[in-house]
Amino acid sequence: MLIAGFPAGAFQTNCYVVAPAAGEECVIVDPGQDAVDGVDELLREHRLKPVAVLLTHGHLDHVWSVAPVCGARDVPAWIHPDDRHLLSDPAAGWSPTSSSMFGGITLSEPDDVRELSDGAVLPLAGLEIVVDHTPGHTRGSVSFRLPDDEVMLSGDLLFAGSIGRSDLPGGDYPTILRSLADKCLPLPDDTVVLPGHGPQTTIGRERATNPYLKEAAPHAGPTRGI
Asked: One Pfam family of this protein, by short name (predicted)?
């Protein structure tokens, strides 16, 4: 499997391309601010043909470039319905104070938007991508898991040493703890976590060191059998 990425824009939001191998079809995950050139460079470098854009949630720093990326390649965007409104109203995802920073920004939906649901398996680019609804950062936040739980694209649910903020519209701290308990803690320790910001990590490392996963642990149900 090929996974490549880069931090895009002022927010340094990680944008990824995922494919079975070089020279094949791929999906693009979270094309944020000024991500178009970086995406084009990765596609050229690895000779990839995109078939879809996947969005972990609707915050501006993750969806900024989705319309131009989808439009240039004539591919659909996938997002959870609870965050779809943020594609055309990005200020709704920010506090009144911070949303003033984005007053001059106008975004629009791509021509083809499709909706994600919890537990769905997306057969895209020769991969089977599992969707986990993981609210708490936003109502429509999702994470994506790749074959046999080898990789989790966590968006702004889980970072190396931290988690996504829950103080913006649609965020809720008890809810994000429940998402961590239900969707992260049952995964194998060697699952690689590719977050929306910062360096990659593993579930085992976060289970051992991340204070928020420790806080989430009492909320977890029975762990998955090994």
From this structure: Lactamase_B
* Residue 66: strand, helix, or coil: helix
Kindly write down the DSSP assignment for every residue of 11-50, as one continuous string: TTEEEEEEESSTTSEEEEE---TT-HHHHHHHHHHHT-EE
pTM for this structure?
A: 0.93
Strands (E) located in 20-106: 25-29, 49-54, 77-79
The structure tokens listed for 75 are 């591919």
What amino acid is encoded at 86 in this protein?
L
pLDDT per residue as tens digits for the range 71-112? 999 999 999 999 999 999 888 887 765 555 555 577 889 999
CA distance 212 to 218: 11
* Secondary structure of 180-192 in HEC code, one letter for each residue: HHHHHCCCCCCCE
Residue 3 per-residue DSSP state = E
